Amino acid sequence: MNSGWVYRDQIRSSAEGLTVLDYYTRHYRHSNQVEWQSRILAGQILLDGASTQPETCLRAGQQLTYHRPPWQEPDVPLTFETVYEDSELLVIAKPSGLPVLPGGGFLEHTLLRQLQQRYPNQPPMPIHRLGRGTSGLLLLARSSQARAALSQQMRTHQIVKTYRTLAVGNSMPECFRVTQPIGKLAHPVLGYLYAATPDGLSAQSDCRVLQRGTETSLLEVVIATGRPHQIRIHLAVAGYPLLGDPLYGSGGLPLSVRPDEMGEVPVPGDCGYHLHALKLEFHHPLTGERLRLSCPPPLDLA
Predict the structure, then answer these.
(1) What CATH number does domain 73-156 carry, 3.30.1520.10, 3.40.50.300, 3.30.2350.10, 1.10.287.610?
(2) Which CATH superfamily is domain 157-271 in?
(3) For residue range 144-179, what is the model confidence (pLDDT) as tens digits?
(4) What tens digit of pLDDT does each residue of 182-229 get?
(5) What is the pTM of this model?
(6) CATH topology for 5-68?
(7) Are 93 and 105 in contact (CB under 8 A)?
(8) Among 49, 52, 92, 233, which is most exposed with the fewest C-beta within 10 angstroms?
């Protein structure tokens, strides 16, 4: 069991007039109305620090806090290897299955919490993210100066990331580029998720075939942009979704928003796909040296 968590919401003018129950039911659809009402009546949800009732109407500027009790988190691989480390930055090899940040039922079983335990005085902060099911290189800053410099490199596309993945299909060109914008798409359970959208942010993925099989192909994908789930979405847009991806299908859109036999809805943090961050290139934030790091892929992507 973890130690529980407190979720805070500042009420905006657009939510003024909603009841406490309506607010949680509309904004957090992972739970139904009966479940939210039970939490309010149990005193787990406070309004401006005091207990409240499901029918209490909200005003702009008020604060809601949901005190989630401790829960048992799913087991994940918690160990990771250090690829590079100095006083300014850290590069680690993240295992598939380990979430980077809290969310989706994970709090203690995350890379961020493991880093807080290993570096209690000043935990390194991720410069970019890897999906829970993605393995490989992750860049983190160990100082505020390094974080600012590396974040600037991300914004100006100076950090180049090379991935290896297994995609469905074998008829793609030897080399091809995908430039589909990626943005938020309304989702009836999650509120939104990232997908291919015409009005999204620009993104570019350069793909090269390494090996063709009878039904799948091994690809190398280089990205300078880092939109959420970019490679999963882009290869699905191209017609070659990642093998085993439970969420993204044709057109870079969600495969389904309906519960499966277990009553669960596919979410971006689900595993099953094959994707590995193989190489990472960037300038050292202090010396300016161009660093080129690599991490061996798992056997299925070797």
Answers:
(1) 3.30.2350.10
(2) Pseudouridine synthase (3.30.2350.10)
(3) 999 999 999 999 999 999 999 999 999 999 999 999
(4) 999 988 777 889 999 999 999 999 999 999 999 999 999 999 899 999
(5) 0.89
(6) 3.10.290
(7) no
(8) 49
